[in-house]
Specification:
- By secondary structure, the protein is α/β, with parallel strands linked by helices.
- It is built from five helices and seven strands; from the N terminus they run αβαβαβββαβαβ.
- A seven-stranded parallel sheet has the order 1-2-3-4-5-6-7, covered by helices on one side.
- Helix 3 links the parallel strand 2 and strand 3.
- The N and C termini lie far apart (39 Å).
- Keywords: Leucine-rich repeat, Repeat.
Length: 169
Amino acid sequence: MAKQAALVALRCTEISEKGHLNLSDCDLTKVPDGIFMLTRSSVVTSVDFERNKLRRLSPEVANKYPQLTELNLCQNFLQDLPLNLDSLSELRVLDLSWNSLHFIPAVVFRIPKLERLILKQNQITRIPMKELREMKSLRSIDIENNPLTEETFTELQGLAADKIVTVHL
């Protein structure tokens, strides 16, 4: 635990000039409140929580990092997302691959500038196509290796033809 805390503290002080906070591979089971204090003087535009053990994402991530353009939550155990994630008005890339999602959280469809949504290797069977079509900024969705129903698979192929969206199935 002490080693984990030291690594997180070090990473918080190493925010790149571009505002990237790398908390990947830190063995986190939750987002430590201390990161917000340690990074309060930085403009954080990208956060990487890849390869941790997160079961939920703290709503404070959206509250404290309102200028996020990229959020990597790949390879965790997430089943849902905080309802305030749509307050991230500059978020362009959201990586939720390799989690425990059985559906796309409704808040994802309300993220105003989301361009790229990565959902590969989850347990998603259905996608609300109406909501997906209404995402005006969306340019790419990666839904590879999910147990999609045949109907959803067909609808996604149609979406790629209807919209300028790259669909990775």
